[in-house]
Amino acid sequence: MRSNLYTSLTIALMASLSFTSCKKFLDVQPTSTVTSENAYLTGDNIEKAMNGAYNSFIGNGTRPGSNANYYQWEMILQTDIRSDNAHAAGGGEIDFGQIDFNTITNTNDMVRRDWEELYGAISKCNIVIDNVGKVTDPTFSEERRKQILGEASFLRAFHYYQLVKLYGGVPLEKHSNSTDPEVIRIKRSTVEEVYDFIDSDLQVAVNNLPDGFGQPSIDKVRATKGAANALLTKIWAQRPDRDYNKVLQYANAVINGKGGYQLLQNYADLFDGAHNYNNESIIEIPYVAGSPNLSCWGGAFFFPDLDGNGLINENEWRRYGTPSKDLVDAYDKAGDTKRKNANIWFFSVPWADEFWNPCADGNTKIPFNVKQKHANSFQSGDHFYLLRLADIVLLKAEALNALGNSNEAMNTLNIIRHRAGLPDITTGNASQLKSIILNERRLELAFEGQRWDDLNRYGVTVDVMNKLNELKFTCNEGNISTPTPIKYNFNQNSLLLPIPLLEMQANPSLTQNPGY
């Protein structure tokens, strides 16, 4: 049950002040009323600015388009649906279909929107980082000043991590208080430079953040030392000049640190909506069911409300992110019923599905992504993990294997498999183990925004996507057609999104990614 302390914290954390996201990346002026030169000299105002930075994960209001599309649901479109885990489905929108079938253009509205929202989130962090040192309020402690600097630095690093994975090298906007074209028309940094900047922000975070704030309902929704070490683990694995010694160093800092992180015994408990702030969570988005400003509308795009009989209402509409047959087959091939049943549910639906049920046969069920199970009429309270321990444990196994310690890698991997009720891996072949770990991450982390990144890190995206055997069907007077294989036509240029056309036009210093 949600405590009064948590409810008060969440309202203060996410709703006390929010700045409207930038219309474009170059529009870096904050649009709240707190814009004067001395606006951040009090502890109260810098706290409100910090809360506004956290608000980027939730947005303003419960309806789509409320400044948090990326973290509400489009992160899953960009990672799981763009990969071999799911199909766009939905209403056949062009923008989402482009993401699904590798036909993306630089005018894609989602590509533009995610760029804008992430830079809007960064601008809020910049405001805090630039002004927290100026606070002269005698009631504002040096300890809290350091914590806020660490929190804002972590959040900025997290947003830049999303950008560099999606678009490659991006402009490093370090300040958000200028309208001078010579200042704001920033060139793209290299991928390595962006990762170096992320690393520097995370070092600030590690050095200034506590292990916790004394309450799970606070520790799991604010940046902590454990969260910073977890993100350091991920960036040093993901960057092209990866360093697996550092991956191992930071993974161990999470696993053996003072954050008290432990795997839950039952995998399904992670996603049942009844185990928020659990020991496996490192940082999560704390949505509040039924709240007009703090709930999650994004989950309802993947899974609808059920009727009183636990069925999908005959008047419901087709959802997005339909799990692929390849993903379902991967669970079945592994005998992984626990994680499959926690992540994917099958239902009869009142619409045709060209991948699973083209003739809308009421006896044929189709799958849904149910990592968030309680749509609650677009006001879900199901939390979303930004970082959790199992991800870090699997990255540790990956690092151990890459560093030549395959036996310890197997032991680490088997910790995750034991919870899933799967037998131990016993192969000592490093190459085979590498592929096994990649598959384990797929089964463990499906619909958590990881699959696309994993394929890219392993260097197998083009091969996996071009060999993907997904089929489409049509229906003619109740007869299902001969299947049509989907051709993805991937190449190395497909790994990054294009720089949005509007940004290219607004900033002549930008260059486009190859292939666009």
UniProtKB/TrEMBL annotation:
Entry protein name: Putative outer membrane starch-binding protein
Gene3D superfamilies in the record: 1.25.40.390
Keywords in alphabetical order: Cell outer membrane, Membrane, Signal
Subcellular location: Cell outer membrane
UniProt KW Signal keyword: yes
Family assignment from sequence similarity: Belongs to the SusD family.
SUPFAM superfamilies hit by this protein: TPR-like
Domain RagB/SusD span(s) in chain numbering: 370-516
GO cellular component: cell outer membrane
Signal peptide: 1-20
Organism: Sphingobacterium detergens
Annotated SusD-like N-terminal domain residues: 24-235
